[in-house]
Amino acid sequence: MKILQDIITEIINPESLVEPFNFKKYIDNVFKFSGIHSLLYTKKYEPIPNKILHLTDTLFDKNGASVSLAYQLKYIQKNNIACDYLICKKDVDPQPHLYVVQPVVKLSKRYVDLNFPNITDIIEIFYREKYDRVICSTEGPMASMALYLKQIFKIPAYFFIHTDWLEYINSNSNFSNKALEQNISLKSFKFLYSQFDKIFVLNTDNRDYLIRKMDISKKKIYLTSYFSIPPLKNIPSLERNKFFPDSDTRAILFLACRLSREKGIFDIPKILKRARKKIPHLKIVIAGAGPDEKKLRKKIDSGAYFLGWVAKEQLAKMYKNLDLFVFPSRFDTFGNVLLEAFSYGMPAISYNSKGPKDIIQHNKNGYLVENWKDMADKIIDFFENAETRKRMRQEAKKRIQYYEEKIVMKKYLKNLGVI
User: Fold this and answer.
1) I need a labelling partner for 233 at 20 to 30 A (CA). Which of 101, 129, 255, 400 fits?
2) Are 376 and 46 in contact (CB under 8 A)?
3) What is the pTM assigned to this prediction?
4) Partners of 362 in the beta sheet?
């Protein structure tokens, strides 16, 4: 119980409240089990073996983790796996294998919405459905709920790390003492993750960091990935001069992401400036929106076209018809957009870290580089060699077979212990 209280107290900041909130009332509600209290202590809990509840704070949002979780849910529903999802959100209807509870309070903090559930609702569902384990995939209120269920029902609790919050904090915080802030953040996440019995990670860098910096046992860490979505068929060709009329369009980069600082977007102007010394006609098309879009527009003086948020059909057209996907993020733990690009035969260039490091095969289906100067130089190499471009497009499509739905989900569900 102390764990839950500590985490909730740390998260809640009265200045970030969206709705009126009585902290004492919420805590009182958390520790009142309603009619469940007597059931838990007078009746033996008999769970169904190998049945898991997945708690998450995100499922229908515009981010990679949310999209991937939604596709996981579809796979669970299609194959009727002994795994249910639970979210706390207004205006969402329940589905097969999806429970929805209503928030008792909502907070917004730095573009992140936190919905706090009534824990009694979750306890009732957990008890009734007789789960024998729980997994959580977000560090918000649901992490506290997962640990609370672990304590009450004496079951194992797992965690799926989708986001590198240490990198996010480092990139977005205005705190003057960065070293102190990083130290506090590291200890906080180390404390949180150490409470779980299994940790699922999306890349080898995060796995090694947990072992080296957080003293998490290697035996507790499981490497997994997202899976690729089959490309859309019959994608029409694209008139490249639509974006840049009366201009040379032989070399066009493509970027699709949330336009925020942690995504490395402010490296793009420097990369373009350096690469254009050799390829003056180099252009870029950018899909996405975010808090730093205006700043990015000001820094790129010419040769850039901003699409905003676009539908998957429009994205598919970009992937199929433009030349090279550029991904300057050191933040992403995976990189769904890389799989999307590869599925349409678009090579990619990224920094040699985290998710992209495990997806891109250097000099085969793209490039892995150490800094923005190297990224600009490899872009030049790519456009100066037609044979390289042709070969990389072919290799990109081959790479996607390692991320097929059945392969990824079979391994993941086996490690969860539900198949």
Assistant:
1) 255
2) no
3) 0.86
4) 366
Please report, in tens digits, the pLDDT of each residue of the chain (419 residues total).
444 444 344 444 444 444 444 545 555 555 554 445 545 544 678 999 999 999 998 888 777 788 899 999 999 999 999 999 999 988 889 999 999 999 888 776 555 677 888 888 999 899 999 999 999 998 888 999 999 999 889 999 999 999 888 777 776 666 656 676 677 788 889 999 999 999 999 999 999 999 999 999 999 999 999 999 999 999 988 888 889 988 888 999 999 999 999 999 999 999 999 999 999 999 999 999 999 999 999 999 799 999 999 999 999 999 999 999 999 999 899 999 999 999 999 999 999 999 999 999 999 999 999 999 999 999 999 999 999 999 999 999 999 999 999 999 999 999 999 98
Cα separation, 419 vs 410, in Å, equals 8
Strand, coil or helix: 274: helix
Written as six digits, the tokens of 60 are: 């229908």
- Please state, in angstroms and rounded to a whole number, the distance separating the CA atoms of residues 15 and 28: 21
Which of 326, 279, 278, 282 is CA-nearest to residue 302? 282
**Cβ neighbour number for residue 108 with a 10 Å cutoff:** 12
Q: Which of 158, 149, 151 is nearest to 125 (CA)?
A: 149
Instruction: Give the Cβ contact number of residue 308 at 10 Å.
Output: 10
Amino acid at residue number 317: K
- DSSP 8-state symbol, 47: P
Output the furthest CA–CA distance in the chain (Å, rounded).
Answer: 78
Q: Are 159 and 199 in contact (CB under 8 A)?
A: yes
User: Residue 163, SS3?
Assistant: strand
DSSP string covering 2-44, please? Answer: HHHHHHHHHH--GGGBSS---HHHHHHHHT--TTHHHHHHHS-
Reading the block at residue 358, the tokens are 């495990």
> Which residues, in sequence order, are CB contacts of 86 under 8 Å at separation 6+?
53, 54, 55, 56, 98, 99, 100, 101, 122, 125
251, 279 contact by CB (below 8 A): yes
Integer Cα distance of 7 and 144 in angstroms: 7
Q: Which residues contact 213 (CB under 8 A, 6 or more apart)?
A: 186, 190
Name the percent of the chain in helix, strand, coil, to the closest 5.
45, 20, 35
Output the DSSP codes for 194-242: HTSSEEEESSHHHHHHHHHHS---GGGEEE----PPPPPSSPPP--GGG
